[in-house]
Amino acid sequence: MTEIKFYKKAASYWAKVPATVNGVLGGFGHISDIDIDGSRTFLNHLLSLEDPLDTKLALDCGAGVGRVSKYLLVPYFDKVDLVEQDEKFINTAAEVLGQNNVKLGTLYHKSLQKFKPDKKYDLIWCQWVLGYLTNNDLVEFLRKCSKSLAPNGMIIIKENIAPAEELEYDDEDSSVTRPYKQMVTIFNEANLEIIKSEVQTGFPDDIYSVYMFALKPK
Q1: Which are the contacts of 86, defined by CB distance < 8 A and separation ≥ 6?
Q2: What CATH number does residue 47 fall under?
Q3: DSSP tag of 130
Q4: Overall pTM surpassing 0.90 (yes/no)
Q5: pLDDT value, residue 1
Q6: What positions does the entry give for S-adenosyl-L-methionine binding (predicted)?
Q7: pLDDT tens across 152-188, in order?
Q8: 67 among the known binding-site residues?
Q9: Is residue 85 a known part of a binding site?
Q10: Is residue 119 included in any domain, yes or no?
């Protein structure tokens, strides 16, 4: 499959998905609270480090309907920017967070492969979205994110991890699930090091293992 077709197919898939938590979570809306609790615990650990990140500005990548922004990032950060390629999702996110919410920052209606951060972020959160980028575009995206981190800033990645050594392709939504070793290779190519990693607990046994990675520039 060509790169253009890979991206077009994914965009077409999400264009048909309803702008709800259950929609963006592929029918697994019931795991949202467990997911947020795990992310909160992970973030709290990072904020308790001796030299923690600041909490002025965060970026939610592939923000969907604003689920992570509303329940995880907004309670911690002064401002939260969102980037999302699907128009109905980002419009819904604005409604969910409240147009007059003083913590709602800039909404970027863009795909991640075309997005270039132009601010300095204390935290860049990427969850269940990086499987929609090719390997080369993912490395390039992470490099761009690395350059746009504030001092002590971090990139957090929360993604499905393939159980075997091989990358798995989902033909329905045009996404890939990468094995752990490949994720680490990509982080190295982007000149990022893992500060902390953890497996999300409490999820159903019949879904992929979900890893959280806290990354900093080497």
Answers
A1: 11, 14, 15, 17, 19, 64
A2: 3.40.50.150
A3: G
A4: yes
A5: 79
A6: 62, 67, 112-113, 127
A7: 999 999 999 999 999 999 999 999 999 999 999 999 9
A8: yes
A9: no
A10: no
